[in-house]
Design brief:
With 234 residues, this protein is α+β, with helices and mostly antiparallel strands. It folds into two domains: 4-115, Orthogonal Bundle (Arc Repressor Mutant, subunit A); 130-227, Beta-Lactamase, CATH 3.30.450. It is built from eight helices and eight strands, in the order ααβββαααααββαβββ. A hairpin with a 4-residue loop joins β6 and β7 (206-213). α2 (37-44) packs parallel to α3. It is globular, with a radius of gyration of 18 Å.
Length: 234
């Protein structure tokens, strides 16, 4: 794998999509709609190990090209797939010469764009519409919040909810305002979803619903709808 000196003049450390395109072209994965972390780690020639990582769920040794993940036994343990994806984000950032310490939010954005490409998002929305549970299932072991973020980025959707650990997320297209803190209407709708209810939302073709998150083996709730009508499933 070339070092970052070949790419740093062309990649902005604040441009997750540019970084994803550059690195995926390098390994011949730029046309793939889905790049699972195990596929990417193999393409990068990384040595994956499971072991004890004091105080961390995962760590990456770029020089030795080795990723160590705590608690993962094999590929069927979906709980640590995102940990690997996140570490691959750090690896790509190092290859591209991004300065350390990396911005963790940008690493998450990069990891999501490496895993789920625009073509996959548009195919998913075109197939299952704005059904939150169906979208999460469509992408297999990708964390639900990552799926909703990619839908917001590529299909111009709005996703506001809570994951299975109670952590709030709010994603929307660039320039589209979302509340920085929970509002009364948000709490009301999410309470309905967490109780198992599903309801149409704002007559926009979206919905409020619960979802099962395969990455954490927990249940969350989301308000999900298209920001613009042309992204409704026809």
């Amino acid at each position: 794998m070339p070092d970052g000196s070949q790419f740093s003049p062309y990649v902005d450390p604040d441009d997750a999509e540019g970084a994803a395109v550059v690195i995926l072209r390098l390994i011949g994965r730029h046309l793939a709609r889905i790049n699972h972390p195990f596929t990417l780690s193999s393409s990068f020639g990384l040595d994956l190990r499971c072991g004890r990582v004091p105080g961390l769920v995962a760590c990456l040794d770029t020089r030795r090209r080795r990723a160590t993940l705590r608690g993962g036994r094999d590929e069927t343990d979906t709980r640590w797939h995102w940990d690997l994806a996140h570490e691959l984000g750090h690896y790509v950032a190092d290859v591209l010469g991004w300065p350390r310490p990396h911005d963790e939010s940008m690493i998450d954005a990069l990891a999501g764009r490496l895993w789920i490409r625009r073509g996959a998002v548009m195919q998913a929305v075109g197939t299952v519409g704005w059904n939150a549970m169906a979208l999460v299932r469509y992408f297999g072991t990708a964390p639900a919040a990552v799926v909703f973020r990619r839908v917001a980025e590529e299909a111009r959707g709005v996703a506001i909810g809570r994951d299975g650990f109670g952590r709030r997320f709010a994603f929307a297209p660039e320039g589209w305002p979302v509340p920085s803190h929970p509002t009364r209407w948000e709490r009301h709708h999410l309470r309905i979803a967490m109780a198992g209810g599903v309801e149409p939302f704002l007559k926009r073709g979206g919905e409020v619903s619960p979802f099962e998150d395969p990455a954490t083996e927990t249940r969350g709730a989301v308000i999900l709808y298209p920001a613009e009508p042309e992204f409704l499933r026809g």
